[in-house]
Amino acid sequence: MENKAYEKVILHIKGRILEGSLRQGEKLPPERELAEQLGVGRNSVREALRTLEIIGVISSTQGAGNFVSASFEKSLVELMTMMFLLQKTDYRQISELRQGIETQAALLALERIDAPTVTRLSEIAGALGAGGSEERNVVLDKQLHYTIAQTSGNQLIVEILQALSDVMDLFISDLRREILTSDLSRDQLQHSHEGMVRGLLLRDRQILLQAIGEHFRLITEHL
Q: Which of 219, 223, 192 is closest to 99 using CA atoms?
């Protein structure tokens, strides 16, 4: 009975989001109101809200209440983390998925990129090539890939790539540092980054795809 009540609350909130009566950023009714409206116990409401928060549908703020967040990225991170822990996936599969999505993001960016974004990417690649601390280079590396994803103009791609990056950082946090601290690997990585930027600058599909392939071959070698 309690399980059915808990599911009833989840279905009610999901239904309101789907019909548009609850939108992103809006506050959910108080627990007591939901319990009375749906004819369930407050424990069932709390359990439903905890579940929705875990999967990223809502966010909870102490003293303020529960809000619709629709965090697609958080939902994906939770799902992939659980798959990883249950050994339903591994580093290589995550990297292969990331390569496929980053390739599509770059091809879309090729069509939509503007001069200021090319300049920004060139600056990031130049800063990476100038050396600097490991921490700084890790941040710059992420910025370069994130900027290309954003330039694709596809928010789903941005969210998925960010989730994949978060999962890889969670389980193999030293991978970027390992690549960036090896002279040979760092040079190869820099060459691939410069190739991506050059491909986007020239709107040259072949140069772009070759650079992405080089980039992920390097990652695969370190997995």
A: 219
